[in-house]
């Protein structure tokens, strides 16, 4: 029977599909680390207290990239080139979501509206990351090869989401509420389209590697389109709500070290 658990298990059990999965994940996390590092360096003077948390966010993303590469090494595998149609982070950037890379490469300080854009983009994408890792944690928290990595990354993503809620609420209280809600809505509606397209692309690549039948591939595509239909109708709203998190000051300390993989 086709299920999320059986699908992930099939991907984990095959070296080539696992190689692609970890390569895609490592690339996205490393890109996020670079982006957060540049944002931390360019934070406006009025938001300097935020710089340490952005730096911690970037350090966590770098750590996740290292973890996925370590999982590959543990199985004697090397990363593959990430297919362009599966590069979630770069596709979002091309759609104008978040801060443009040419802006981050400049040495001009960011503005408070730039910080609003960054945090709104992060709040939406961290919602997705937190949910995806919660799903993996549900099925593979005790897996002998990937369990420790799944548990650590899932906890980090939950911290990142909590941090975004707390900082956006702080900025809303400072008078940026309308800009925050407008930016969150635009990010969420764009993200669900990109997530649909990237999911279809990833499943197509996996299907070729694993030799899925046309019926299996069609069923998975139907499920992806069904998720998009739900998110387009109402599900996107979960990505724009703001509430004070139980985890306060979630990024207020140094990043935890990545686990060692024998």
TrEMBL record:
SUPFAM superfamilies, A to Z: Ferritin-like (SSF47240)
InterPro entries the UniProt entry points to: Ferritin-like_SF
Protein known as: Ferritin-like domain-containing protein
Species lineage: Bacteria, Bacillati, Actinomycetota, Actinomycetes, Kitasatosporales
């Amino acid at each position: 029977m086709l299920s999320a658990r059986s699908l992930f298990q099939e991907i984990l059990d095959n070296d080539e599909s696992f190689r692609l999965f970890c390569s895609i994940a490592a690339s996205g996390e490393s890109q996020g680390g670079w982006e957060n590092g540049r944002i931390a360096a360019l934070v406006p003077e009025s938001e300097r207290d935020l710089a340490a948390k952005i730096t911690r966010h970037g350090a966590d993303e770098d750590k996740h990239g290292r973890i996925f590469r370590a999982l590959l090494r543990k199985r004697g595998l090397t990363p593959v080139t990430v297919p362009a149609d599966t590069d979630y982070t770069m596709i979002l950037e091309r759609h104008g979501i978040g801060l443009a890379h040419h802006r981050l490469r400049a040495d001009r300080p960011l503005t408070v509206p730039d910080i609003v854009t960054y945090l709104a983009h992060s709040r939406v994408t961290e919602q997705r990351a937190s949910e995806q890792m919660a799903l993996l944690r549900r099925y593979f928290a005790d897996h002998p090869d990937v369990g420790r990595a799944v548990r650590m990354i899932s906890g980090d993503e939950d911290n990142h989401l909590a941090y975004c809620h707390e900082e956006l609420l702080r900025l809303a209280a400072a008078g940026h509420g309308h800009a925050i809600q407008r930016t969150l809505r635009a990010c969420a509606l764009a993200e669900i389209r990109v997530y649909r397209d990237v999911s279809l692309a990833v499943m197509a690549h996996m299907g070729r590697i694993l030799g899925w039948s046309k019926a299996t591939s069609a069923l998975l595509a139907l499920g992806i389109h069904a998720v998009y239909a739900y998110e387009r109708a109402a599900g996107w709203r979960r990505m724009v709500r703001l509430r004070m998190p139980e985890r306060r000051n979630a990024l207020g300390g140094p990043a935890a070290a990545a686990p060692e993989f024998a």
